[in-house]
C-alpha cells in the first residue's frame, strides 16, 4: 500500500528532474562525479541517502526492487530502504537477484551475474577516490581534469613498500575508460572485476557529498595496479560453512567466546539458493537453517 | 488552448526517464517513450521536455519549432525559459537547424564537463542502419541512422567536454553521448 501523503517514490518532481539530469550526464561521462543538489532524506547520512535518491529518480511502478546491505537482504539498512519504497512507490520487491530489475546495494555486487535488464544503484560514502590523499576539492578536480593520478600510484606503491602487496581490500580505485579514476564505493576488491564490461547499468549516489556518477553497460573498468604487482581479487581462503561455495565472497563470523569462527557467504540470496539446491557446507548440515 | 501534458506526472515521467536513461546508457538502442501529442513536438521530444526541463533549464527552440503555441505549452507545463544557444541546457529542433548552432551550445568545461547542453533532434526517421557506433554502453558495435556530419567526430574528440544528443521520431528515442565513437559507413 502506498502512503498517499507522499509523491510517487517520495521525492517531489522538481527534485527528480534535477537528479535525472545529473544521472544522464553521469552516464554520458563515465566515471566523472556530477555534482547534484542532494536533499535531506528521512534517514541519516551514511544510511544510503545518495543511493535512495538515485533509486527514487529511477524507479517506475513496474520495477521489482532488491536492496542489499553487505550482500544481505535481511539487515536493518536493507529492510528499511526496501520498506521505504514499498510504502512510497508501491513497487514489487524481491530477495532474488535474478528477479530484480533495480538493485540498490551497500558495499557488494551480487554473486549471480547481472543482466542487461538490471540497474545497480550503489550507496557511496566518499565518492572522491583522491580525497584522503588531497583534501582540496579544487585540486582533486584539476587532477581529474588532467587525468593526473600520480598521487594514487604513489599511495599504492607505498602500500607495496610497507606491506609487500597492495593492502587496499575495499573501495579499491578503478580506471574508467582510461580517463577517470573512480571509487567503486566500498565494495570488496573481490567485486571489482564484476564492474568491467558489466551488462548492467551501474549508478552511484553519494548523498552527503552530493555526487552522482555512473558506469554505462560494457564500460572498460580497470583496477589500478603495477606490471610487477598485478591486481588480484581476493577473498577469505575458505569455503562457505553453510552452502560450501568456494567461489563466493565470505563474511567471517565469531561464534563463541573461545575463538570459534565460521565463514559464510556475504550474499544471502546466493547462499540460500545454493542450500535450497542441496549444497551443504561444513556447518550447514540439516535444513532447519534454510529459509 | 494549451496542449495537454502528462496526466499522471510522477509515474509517466518515471517511465519516460527510464526510457531516456536506457537510450543514453546504450547508444544506438531505439526505445519507445510515451508522451503527449498535439504540442508541436513529437511525443518523444515532448516527453523529454516534460521529464527533464524546469525553471532552472534554458531551452533554445529552432526557428522551425518556434511558435507561440509551443512556447506557451513549454512555459505552462515546465516553467523553462527560452534562451540563445549559448545559455541552453536543451536545444530542440531538426538537424538542419541545430547543426549550425552546435558550436554555440555550452559543451562544459574541462573541470565541469557535465555543464553541457543536450540537443534534442527531431528526425524524420530513426533506424538501426547507417553510422557504426562503438564505445561505453555498446557491447560490440551498434548502428544508428545519424545525419552525415563531421560534427559527431568533433564532439567525441572534445572529450571530456561535449554535447550529448537525443534523437526523437514519433514515439521513439535514441541517444548519442559524447563518448560514442561514430564511423560513417
TrEMBL record, chain A:
InterPro entries: PhnJ (IPR010306). It catalyses: alpha-D-ribose 1-methylphosphonate 5-phosphate + AH2 + S-adenosyl-L-methionine = alpha-D-ribose 1,2-cyclic phosphate 5-phosphate + methane + 5'-deoxyadenosine + L-methionine + A + H(+). The keyword Ribosomal protein does not apply. The keyword Metal-binding applies. Keywords: 4Fe-4S, Iron, Iron-sulfur, Lyase, Metal-binding, S-adenosyl-L-methionine. GO terms for biological process: organic phosphonate catabolic process. Pfam families: PhnJ. GO terms for molecular function: 4 iron, 4 sulfur cluster binding; alpha-D-ribose 1-methylphosphonate 5-phosphate C-P-lyase activity; metal ion binding. Its EC number is 4.7.1.1. Coiled coil: none annotated. Catalyzes the breakage of the C-P bond in alpha-D-ribose 1-methylphosphonate 5-phosphate (PRPn) forming alpha-D-ribose. Belongs to the PhnJ family. This is Alpha-D-ribose 1-methylphosphonate 5-phosphate C-P lyase. It comes from Paenirhodobacter enshiensis.
UniProtKB/TrEMBL annotation, chain B:
The keyword Lyase applies. One of its GO terms (biological process) is organic phosphonate metabolic process. Keywords: Lyase. GO terms for molecular function: lyase activity. NCBIfam families: PhnH_redo. This is Carbon-phosphorus lyase. It comes from Paenirhodobacter enshiensis. The lineage of its organism: Bacteria, Pseudomonadati, Pseudomonadota, Alphaproteobacteria, Rhodobacterales.
Amino acid at each position: 500500500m502506498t502512503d498517499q501523503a507522499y509523491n510517487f517514490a517520495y521525492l517531489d518532481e522538481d527534485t527528480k528532474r534535477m537528479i535525472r539530469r545529473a544521472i544522464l550526464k553521469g552516464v554520458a561521462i563515465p566515471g566523472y562525479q556530477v555534482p547534484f543538489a542532494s536533499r535531506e532524506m528521512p534517514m541519516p547520512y551514511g544510511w544510503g541517502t545518495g543511493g535512495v535518491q538515485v533509486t527514487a529518480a529511477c524507479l517506475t511502478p513496474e520495477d521489482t526492487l532488491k536492496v542489499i546491505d553487505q550482500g544481505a537482504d535481511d539487515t536493518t539498512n536493507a529492510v528499511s530502504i526496501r520498506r521505504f519504497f514499498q510504502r512510497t512507490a508501491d513497487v514489487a520487491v524481491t530477495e532474488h537477484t535474478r528477479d530484480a530489475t533495480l538493485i540498490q546495494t551497500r558495499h557488494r555486487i551480487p554473486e549471480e551475474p547481472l543482466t542487461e535488464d538490471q540497474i545497480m544503484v550503489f550507496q557511496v560514502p566518499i565518492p572522491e577516490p583522491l580525497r584522503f590523499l588531497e583534501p582540496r576539492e579544487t585540486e582533486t578536480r584539476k587532477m581529474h581534469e588532467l587525468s593526473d593520478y600520480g598521487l594514487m600510484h604513489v599511495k599504492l606503491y607505498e602500500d607495496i613498500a610497507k606491506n609487500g602487496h597492495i593492502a587496499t581490500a575495499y573501495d579499491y580505485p578503478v580506471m574508467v575508460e582510461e580517463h577517470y579514476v573512480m571509487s567503486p564505493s566500498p565494495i570488496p576488491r573481490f567485486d571489482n572485476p564484476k564492474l568491467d564490461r558489466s551488462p548492467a547499468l551501474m549508478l552511484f549516489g553519494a548523498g552527503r557529498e552530493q555526487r552522482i556518477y555512473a558506469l554505462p553497460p560494457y564500460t572498460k573498468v580497470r583496477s589500478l595496479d603495477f606490471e610487477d604487482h598485478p591486481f588480484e581479487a581476493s577473498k577469505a581462503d575458505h569455503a562457505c560453512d553453510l552452502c560450501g561455495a568456494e567461489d563466493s565472497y565470505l563474511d567471517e563470523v565469531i561464534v563463541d567466546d573461545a575463538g570459534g569462527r565460521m565463514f559464510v557467504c556475504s550474499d544471502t540470496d546466493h547462499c540460500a539458493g545454493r542450500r535450497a539446491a542441496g549444497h551443504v557446507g561444513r556447518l550447514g548440515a540439516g535444513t532447519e537453517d534454510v529459509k | 488552448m494549451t496542449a495537454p501534458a502528462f496526466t499522471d506526472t510522477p509515474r509517466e515521467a518515471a517511465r519516460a526517464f527510464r526510457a531516456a536513461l536506457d537510450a543514453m546508457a546504450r547508444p544506438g538502442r531505439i526505445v519507445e517513450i510515451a508522451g503527449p501529442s498535439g504540442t508541436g513536438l513529437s511525443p518523444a521530444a515532448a516527453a523529454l521536455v516534460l521529464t527533464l526541463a524546469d525553471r532552472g533549464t534554458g531551452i533554445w527552440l529552432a526557428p522551425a519549432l518556434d511558435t507561440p503555441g509551443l512556447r506557451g505549452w513549454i512555459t505552462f507545463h515546465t516553467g523553462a525559459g527560452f534562451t540563445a544557444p549559448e545559455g541552453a541546457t536543451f536545444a530542440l529542433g531538426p538537424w538542419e537547424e541545430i547543426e549550425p548552432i552546435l558550436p554555440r551550445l555550452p559543451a562544459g568545461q574541462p573541470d565541469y564537463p557535465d555543464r553541457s547542453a543536450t540537443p534534442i533532434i527531431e528526425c524524420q526517421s530513426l533506424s538501426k542502419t547507417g553510422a557504426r557506433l562503438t564505445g561505453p554502453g555498446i557491447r560490440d558495435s551498434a548502428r544508428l541512422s545519424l545525419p552525415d556530419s563531421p560534427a559527431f567526430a568533433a564532439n567525441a574528440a572534445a572529450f571530456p567536454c561535449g554535447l550529448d544528443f537525443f534523437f526523437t521520431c514519433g514515439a521513439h528515442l535514441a541517444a548519442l553521448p559524447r563518448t560514442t565513437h561514430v564511423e560513417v559507413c
